[in-house]
Amino acid sequence: MEIAPAAAPFPAPHRPGPWPVVAAVLVGGWAVLVTVSGQVVGWAVDQVLLVTGLPRAVLVWPLVALATVLLVGAPSLALALLPRSPAVRATGRAWLGGALALGALALLRTVPPVHQEAYLAALAATAAVLALIVGRLSRRRANAAPGTAVPGPSGAPPAAAEHLVAGPAVRPTGPAGGDGGRRLGPVTLLAVAAGLASLLPWAWVGALGGALETLLAGLAAAALGGLAGALLDATFWARFAVGTPPRPARLVLVGGLVAGVALLPLAAGAGQSGAQLPALLLLPPLGFVLAALEAAARRSGRPAGRAPVRWLVGLALAGPLAFTDPEEITVLLAAGRDVPYWVAVGAGAAFAVAVLLAVGYGVLLARPRAGAPRRTAAGLAAASLLAAVAVVYVVPGHPGLYGERLLVVLREQADLSGIPAGAPGRDGRNSRATEVYRRLVTTADRTQGDLRRELTRLRLNPTPYYLLNAIETDGGPEVRAWLSGRPEVARVLVSQRLRPLPAAEPPAHGDQPAPAGPVWNVSLIGADRVWSELRVTGAGVVVGSSDSGVDGRHPALAAGFRGGDDSWYDPWEHRTAPGDRGGHGTHTVGSAVGRNGIGVAPGAQWVGCVNLDRNLGSPAHYLDCLQFMLAPFPAGGNPFTDGRPDRAPDVLTNSWGCPPIEGCDPGALRPATAALATAGILVVAAAGNTGPYCGSVADPPAAYADVVTVGAVDRARQVTSFSSRGPAAGGLAKPDLVAPGAGVLSAFPGGGYATLDGTSMATPQVAGVVALMWSANPALVGDLARTRRILLDTTAKAGVPAGADTCGSARNLTGAGLVDAYAAVRAAQRAGAPS
């Protein structure tokens, strides 16, 4: 028998001096600081622009990406090239790769958030291409470099196959404890279990979007997992699995820390602005989980490879990518327990799960005497967690799809020209409203039939509208493209839909007592003098409110509700009795018609409709309420056939706007307000709270010429800093006038009162003044031209803060001036009937 030559001694790994290690620690801390701060600052800039109504800054994320690549990539490149230590060099390469990947992924945020499906498709494709590039570079480096020895399970010199490189090119066929072969091995199954555990909180607090959106989110998560696997391959882990025998504690602690920092930029690039924030918490602790899995695999005699990284990172990222809508992670919903609160809860729970997994896997898998993981036990853990995710998703979660809807605007809109003015007062108004309703419904029925039938056949749940000749329907980008190509379609808007919450937010309650007399703003505009001196309170006039709802049992509002079966409509929750969860609508109606000294026209009646839910709406829900105001219908009725235009309210108060984030373009509601004006129904709308920027009166309906647009002043009659400024599109001077909007006390749900700021608070006071005018002179009802002229001609002076930009003219801040209820009612009394 031939005697084999003695094996060559196992080469001792290079031990780095202290300075490369110190440099790596400093670079790692710097990388974390730069990456996290860049993502938070970028998101904050997006939110500031959104709240202030300024255009979206497309260059924000490219600049953040460039800064991150330079500030993190340069020191990481130095680590990858300069030190002699293989571990330090591997650290620099991983961090450099992560920074460059973030630079590419962050550029995708130039895609508008409303096109979420397009963004997710681009994210999946980009991450997949990056994974291929990184994988090829890793294989080239592995083939060019000397072999990296992987010690055997007993600490003996490695086998020949393992003496090559523990990298992607190696397909070991080691012992049963490893992950060789096509089926999932025990280490990969444990990674799947950890990923499913990370997914659990999102199955509870989140909800899926549309079908295509969910599919693309899954593909994007999988591609990002592949990219993570390419960065953290077996070659990477081999640099930390040194020693004879290898020390698993060193692999877990040092390798896990380096891997966590490398995963951070991938988390930063995972999702549109907002969706990446929870991933920043979630992914870094999973680096230790991956290190523990690698230690377990190497104890079995071979590296784990990329599969565990792909599964764990992909499943973990599927949570924030699929179960959250980045447009809802916004300060617009930050009040109370809405989407930002529950995303924070989900992120915190996922972080806690990741930390527990890191500790648990580290203790169980990286102990010096720990045995190799068993496939049966690992498979049972993965199956149990898969079942747990399914149960949580179905029981406390929100199963189903909650994607956005589409608003299909048809080319042909109703011809409302030539409608006679009719008799003065309400009789003439009713006849005009009836004719407008007839023409609108006739046009919609004639032009929508084919499209409605086709959408119904495709099970896309169409909802027709007539006030704007349009149809709301289910559908993603593919349906939108198909609809846009139809000859009868003018354009297709995205009609936003909020995803459901794990628990409804507790209803708002007022915490202030009723005022002792007329509140300051009522006295400032002289409404109390109208009651006492002119004996006019608004009796005989009906004010319509489209808002978050109204607390119909509030002591200041209960007596003013018109009643009947056609005075309340809730298209969100289909409640048959007036109610209000948020309080905004109760406050505004109180300022218009509330008793106890809070309302301008306490003798007027009100009707209500809910077009806001959780402070956001959509074009379709705004149309729901505007249609109801033109032709109220009984609960459960059909707006097309059961409308009663003779029961329409006289004046509408609208303390809302429809910005692009909700799906509106500048002309989205233009036909709707034009039809209401033709019917003789006056629309009063808030200018918005996006001042002090010029041109910030932009969102429908405030920017329309036939709408009375209201800005806000304070107690000193000075325009507030938040009140939106004109000019509107086309150079139209807006607002039309101003009213008190700072520190306004009014009704709030639960019987109490609250003080709020905003042009929302100013708007109902102008609607109340119109109610007083029409109560004093019923011949003016429906005569919008004369009413508008009296309103603007009788205003008092309003001030402009010193140094404020007048936006070309003071009228773009104050309009005609501060509404004067007393002067307007006196002028209305003198106006008489039209000649």
From TrEMBL:
Keyword Transmembrane helix among UniProt keywords: yes
Protease listed as a keyword: yes
Stored Pfam families: Peptidase_S8
Top-level taxon of the source organism: Bacteria
Domain Peptidase S8/S53, residue spans: 538-801
Record SUPFAM superfamilies: Subtilisin-like
Family assignment from sequence similarity: Belongs to the peptidase S8 family.
PANTHER family xref list: CELL WALL-ASSOCIATED PROTEASE, SUBTILISIN-RELATED
Name of this chain's protein: Subtilase family protein
